[in-house]
Structures are given as structure tokens and as C-alpha cells.
Amino acid sequence: MAWSGFAPEPYEGRPLDVLRAEALAMEQRRQSWREGRAGRLLSAVAAAQKAAQAAHAAAEAIRAALSRSEGGEPDCCGEAADQVEAHAMTLLKAAQAARRLASEGLS
Q1: d(CA 61, CA 67)
Q2: What pTM does this model have?
Q3: Would you state the pLDDT for residue 10?
């Protein structure tokens, strides 16, 4: 219910150029954060997590193959073992980058 004279003011949208300027400023702040220490640390952690998941999946493939063959020949697992190693190396590099970035301000 609105009494005469007490109705809210009509909504007036903000001008497009103001909205564009605000959006551009927000994107610049985000880009600046991504390029900063915190953003690079987050990227390194995400890369480490992705590599860990991939290494786990490759190792799981080896385990499943050996389970299916009831402890059979591990010769079929060479490619998967190479993948585990490659993902582990990627994980190590990402973890080292994360450690460097996390301890940058401590020295």
C-alpha cells in the first residue's frame, strides 16, 4: 500500500558508460590479482591438485589392471606407470612453485 506522495522514486538505471567503466576497473583488479603473488600461488596449487588427480587416476588404472588379471603380468602397465611418473613430476614442480610463492614474503 502506498499513500499519495509516499511512493518510492522511480528506478533510474546507471548510464552505460558508467557500467562499462566499472566493469573494466573490476576486470583490471582481477587481472592484477591473478598476476600478483596470491594469484600465482593459487594457480600453482591448482596445477598441483590437477597433477595429483591425474597421477592417482593413472595409478588406479594399474591397480585395476592387476586386480583383473589376479596379480598377472605387470608388462601391460608400462604406459600407465609412465603417466604416473610424468604426473608426479608435474606435481613436484607445481608444489615447488607453490612453496616458493608461499615463502616469498618470509625471507
Answers
A1: 10
A2: 0.72
A3: 83
